[in-house]
Structure prediction request, 382 residues.
Amino acid sequence: MGLGACIIWAGALIHSLGQKNKTTGVKSALGANAAVRLRRAARFARTRARELRMIVKALVSTKHPILVHIIPMRRCNLACTYCNEFDDVSTPVPLDEMKRRLDLLADMGTSIITISGGEPLLHPEIDEVIRHIRSRGIIAGMITNGFFLNQERIERLNRAGLEHLQISIDNVTPDEVSKKSLKTLDGRLEMLAQHAVFQVNINSVLGSGVKNPEDALQIAHRAVDLGFTSTVGIIHDNNGQLKPLGEHEQSIFEEIMELGKRSFSRFNEFQHNVARGREHNWRCRSGSRYLYICERGLVHWCSQQRGYPGIPLAQYSPEMRHREYSTEKFCAPRCTVSCVQQVGILDNWRDPQNLKPMPMDRTPRAPQTPELVQIGSAGEIQ
Ligand code: SF4
Ligand code: SF4
Prediction:
């Protein structure tokens, strides 16, 4: 799943701030049985305790990554027309290599790893990837288009130790832009409500290219009815320019934000600024507190700034992370990648950024990946 779909970690902080999560069993969605409800509540309690520790650790020290997105599989079974984060040919990153990368991230002190793609459920050993994240004491999340979910798959994810799952749903009925529709996925959502012991967030979208803004509201209501959390993202044009939502879309946006009060956006103005097309004043700590690790094992600022710094993870030193921490990002005021902005909140109050980005390293140590470089493009926020 692509385009910066990454609200998952935010749930951690929101829950830790005292919001109630319905996936703990408030609605016992669609009759999840008592055993599932019990396991769900236990996992929620454990995850929440670890999330609180993650926040304290992030406030005490700026030396470790808080959130990492890692790509085990660039290939996707779908081809959403707005997406720039998938192909239909690549092979899975071998499990041993995934473990090596996860160990490097664990050694850096990473708190949360979210598996993204492409479609991560196409990876034949994704359960082992999740298990390895958990075995290193890291909070494990995943973003998927949901098409490969069934009861057996959900139970495997339960057993692997998954803690957060996000599905982004674009419309009520499939169209030429996206097949990720409520109609296509509703049966799978019901299965999640019955069998998942991890937390589920459903993200809907508004903005450029979305034909029926009312769809987002219907999707959000369905998510809440099933006992999930609900968030809304905004798709912008291909230039990534902030473009205000129309009046009607803005009212839908506000309604969904109200519905999904667990959304972290309640605690900051970022999404509201994006919805209104306003620039935002913040310090992007990508390359330091947030890392995007592509399928080739290279570190990038984020999904929308792939190509920089483009250094192999094994060579990405604490000094490099520290430099990026202090580097002002030219794209920050008009950024639409809300997960990085949410990570930034933990440090916005300290350490002004006064460095400029390093010149691109073109030595063999850092193989260039021209096919990945997409500076200036931005897509969806979550
Ligand atoms: S499901 Fe759509 S948005 Fe997600 S990675 Fe595949 S093509 Fe991209
Ligand atoms: S400010 Fe730039 S580098 Fe940071 S998350 Fe946004 S687009 Fe990525």
